[in-house]
Amino acid sequence: MMKKYISTIFILLTIAGSSCKKGYLNLTDNPNVPSVASPNLLLSGALKTTADIVNGPDYAMYTCWVGYMSWSTGFQANLQLEEYQFTTSNYQSVWQDNYLNVSNYNALLGSTTEPNYQAIANIMMAYEFEALVDNYNNVPYTEALQGSKNLNPKYDTGQSIYLALMKQLDAAISMIQKAPASAANPQTADVMFGGVMQNWILFANTLKLRLALRESTSSATSGDYATLSAAVKATASLGYLTDAIPATVNPGYANIDADGGQQTPLERNWGVTQTGGAETDKSEYQANSYMAKFFGDNNDPRLVEVYSGSTTTDAATATGVQVGGLVTVQGGVPIVSTTFGYNLPPFGTIDGTPGAIIPSLVGPGVLQSPVQSAVIMSSAEALFLQAEGAAKGLIPGGAAAAATFYNAGIASSFEADAVPDADNAAATYAAQPAIAFPTAGALEAQVKAIITQKWAALAIYGSLEAFNENRRTGYPAVPTSIFPSANAPNQVARIFYPFLEYETNATNVAAEGSIDKFSSKIFWAK
What we know:
Elements: H1 39-55, H2 60-65, E1 69-71, H3 79-82, H4 92-111, H5 115-136, H6 158-178, H7 197-214, H8 222-234, E2 247-249, H9 265-270, H10 280-284, E3 285-287, H11 289-297, H12 303-306, E4 325-330, E5 333-338, E6 347-350, E7 353-356, E8 374-377, H13 379-391, H14 398-416, H15 422-430, H16 443-457, H17 463-473, H18 499-504, H19 506-510
Antiparallel strand pairs: 1-3, 2-8, 4-5, 6-7
Helix pairs in contact: 1-4, 1-5, 4-5, 5-6, 5-7, 6-7, 6-8, 7-8, 7-13, 13-14, 13-16, 14-15, 14-16, 16-17
């Protein structure tokens, strides 16, 4: 988080990293002083920052609101999180970090005329702007990034931005296709695809599919959906990300604490330091009983990969665990979880002695290595997008193809979470009547199955995307906080525009009206 917030995100004259503290591959410390950097450094740094945003602390609250994690019962209650008392002063880094990194990609765009670099910059700006819309709904787009030329940019509607992003992605795909053989290739500076431009086409095409599907469940956007779906169908033959080609970033992560930490961002957030000390969110969060119960009820071997086993001796034999705590045993491994909003440590009886039980944290299948690649879009997510796209006719194949993609998405998730004998385990799991894809069922039943399994696959790194899909479809039915006086009428609909936007761009943000955390929905939400 910035030690001192910038007066306004739109006075940026150049690029900036997500922290004022000099860090690993940060591009500059001062957003008000232009930096001179090569396109290669700009590209590597911006991609690394995207990975930090997606896999880091910015979206930690969504892990709770979507049923992945609970606030630690070893800490004082977090009222802004558990009682939904957040204000415009909370979660400001979501706005700040995303816009700062948009400026990174914009700087890349302005640093070279080479078509491959230009295409990548445009694809990643589309990725970042989609995230901004999905967090806030209407945001500055057409007048953003103009620096001192426009310190008070107007807000564009989320719907209009989605339409513009679809065109931007089409233009980027065309730019790659038309690039001459002599065009400069970023090669290793491209820390996502290693300069394989065909993979950038697949990624852009998958983003197009995601944009269209986001609007497919809202009758209010039916006209735009027709436009977006036509654009998806026009490039469906180009293909999408596959099980063999995910979108992941690795700039050379190392188990080193210097420069703000050089470990993969999941490790820097949910894991341990080079010397074994707990990172911040490892201490502040623990396993959520909603997801633990889902895994346990469905014989899902990801249970002991997404969550770590309790370190309490004989926790697997605990009886009389109080309401709010849950012990789920799989293969002799006890996963101890709590209901979100419950604030007493898990308590039960072991060998006749009552006492507290140490809760589970993020597990070994998620935190496999401090040098593992950081996910921008997993193969599982891409395959579940294709499953829904096939079910809805955006890509060929209908229900049969949807079933194939659905099963492939499950298998990809099992593999990514390091489930032993992943392919066979996934096939056994998917064959269960409660899990099997309803090929002959109604479209809504198919969508429910797809989104539920996507939710299971996105833990923990994909919390924003899981939260987006939950708000879009209502699946799964994640309960709200049980914290006393939370009294949530429904799940959180969105976070607020940041406080400093109200200070520095007051007229334009005020025109968005009063924002309600429970009823001010993103335009595509159910």
